[in-house]
Amino acid sequence: MELVTPNVGTIFWMIIVFGIVAFVLKKFAWRPILNGLYEREESIESALNAAEKARQEMANLKAGNELLLAEARKEKDAIMRQAMNLKDGIVAEAKEKASFETQKSIENARRQIENEKAKAITEMKQQMTEISLMIAEKVIRKEMAGNKQQQEMVNKLIDEIKLN
């Protein structure tokens, strides 16, 4: 039972040793321990603040990237629209030019056909005239076998020419 009930001398020495240890700790160890704890607390707090600041910066960068992406998409769409409009303009211009060239070729072909037709008609008239003259000459030669008839016809033609 002696172990369970404390002795007054032991309690006295325990208090004195505890006081000396507390005094020595307070004098030499307490302040560095507290300073270390404060420094540790400040470093943890600054690390947490830095992490929060980094998180905020990441959120800002992400929002900025999204804005840049949206702007790039708009710019891409504008460029695509402009390219489509340019393509449509070029196609329309090419169609118009082809139509004009076709019309021009058709008109040239018509003129050429008309020229060829007029040339053919002129040639036909000339040939018809030559044939008619040949026929008339043959008919007249046959009918006017004598000099007397030829002389009368020449005189008659001369009179007609003088009247005109």
Question: What secondary-structure arrangement, pairings included, does this model have?
Answer:
Elements: H1 8-143, H2 147-163
How would you explain this protein's 3D organization?
With 164 residues, the chain is mainly alpha-helical. The protein has one domain. It is built from two helices and no strands. It is rod-shaped.
Q: What structural class is derived from the secondary structure elements? A: mainly alpha
Question: Low-confidence parts, pLDDT < 50 over ≥5 residues?
Answer: none
Provide a count of the helices.
2
The count of DSSP E runs of length 2 or more, i.e. the number of strands, is: 0
Main sheet specs? none
- Give the terminus-to-terminus CA distance: 182 Å
Oligomeric state of the chains in view:
single chain
Mean of the pLDDT scores?
87
CA-based shape:
rod-shaped
Number of domains: 1
Features of the shown structure:
164 residues; 2 helices
Brief rundown of the structure:
The protein is 93% helix and 0% strand.
